[in-house]
């Protein structure tokens, strides 16, 4: 039996992402195999993982068992025996210390002069939780941080609010500052840059303005969509852009949308954005959301049971800030009532938020939105037709249904004309694989996700 489980684990490790393997497969254990009844018993550490693995992986594990023993095998799942619980903290009442906000950007001083980089020293690559949603952005950011001005210039990161764009660009700045302490670095939000332009105009100080911004080694500008409609700001930024690129300084830019879709931005700026590398940061997948919650809880000494992290992550899917807000709310509710954090307490604490989330996105809404986007009829989603355009739209809708709803694979298949769950799984895996390679498909999916989330 141990030989089988090692064989099974190795194969699943190759088929899944590292985070999926660590989250779902590694915690499992093969408990027993009844050779006469041909029943394999596998244990999971908690109810949430048991239900999820049973839904998502039982078929694959049964196939591997059949191949290993050369006979049909029934796979049964059960909860592993509980270990003795440790007290949550020293006071023994399960109440946690306040969840502190991240401190503001540190204003270091050097030779008596205030640090002007405006970097938040707490936002680094080391504490940035990585998953499929942001791994390309992190890889590009590391490359730029190690070779500023030479790898990708500019590096343009885009994605919805609360997905970690600001964390990434601060991490780049902190990395370069550590490697080259003398480097001239400035992080600035686009609204502050607009304000600086206005002040320079009022004080007739454009020479000093240009001297400062044109002399930087690294300019990190956040939320550039705020330049929309501000022609003088765009003109000054264009000159800064040209000057910085000319002396091989690095520019990092973020926005909430794809560069060509930012309204009110001069075409010559848009064309400059396209000269470098444009990377999307997507909403985090389930395993990444769990990892983020556990990391945030650990950072502020909250004892967060893993099943509670899974519960929150499964129900809140849009962005990292939403997860942080939920964690704060659960902590406050736990402290107020003097109770340990459990799934029941979490349901009570997040009752209003969960109600809103649960009524936001349905499979039917996804089908209608995707059908409208690709100009096909909703009925064709359920049909047996297989032209390329319909098959693509159907697979995208299945993928979005898996990502944005709590429906299981069999439930999704039933809502697509009674298709088998393996068909849905194939569509999901295909879209995940193609999304990482096809920029146009990735953009289409991003637009659909934004539309569905309102």
Automatic annotation (TrEMBL):
Q: Where does the record place the region Domain I, interacts with DnaA modulators? A: 1-101
Residues annotated as domain AAA+ ATPase: 151-283
Q: In which domain of life is the source organism classified?
A: Bacteria
Q: Which residues form a coiled coil?
A: none
Name the positions where ATP binds.
Answer: 162, 164-166
Task: State the function annotated in the UniProt record.
Answer: Plays an essential role in the initiation and regulation of chromosomal replication. ATP-DnaA binds to the origin of replication (oriC) to initiate formation of the DNA replication initiation complex once per cell cycle. Binds the DnaA box (a 9 base pair repeat at the origin) and separates the double-stranded (ds)DNA. Forms a right-handed helical filament on oriC DNA; dsDNA binds to the exterior of the filament while single-stranded (ss)DNA is stabiized in the filament's interior.
Query: Could you give the domain comment from the record?
Result: Domain I is involved in oligomerization and binding regulators, domain II is flexibile and of varying length in different bacteria, domain III forms the AAA+ region, while domain IV binds dsDNA.
Q: What is this protein called?
A: Chromosomal replication initiator protein DnaA
Upper classification of the organism:
Bacteria, Pseudomonadati, Pseudomonadota, Betaproteobacteria, Burkholderiales
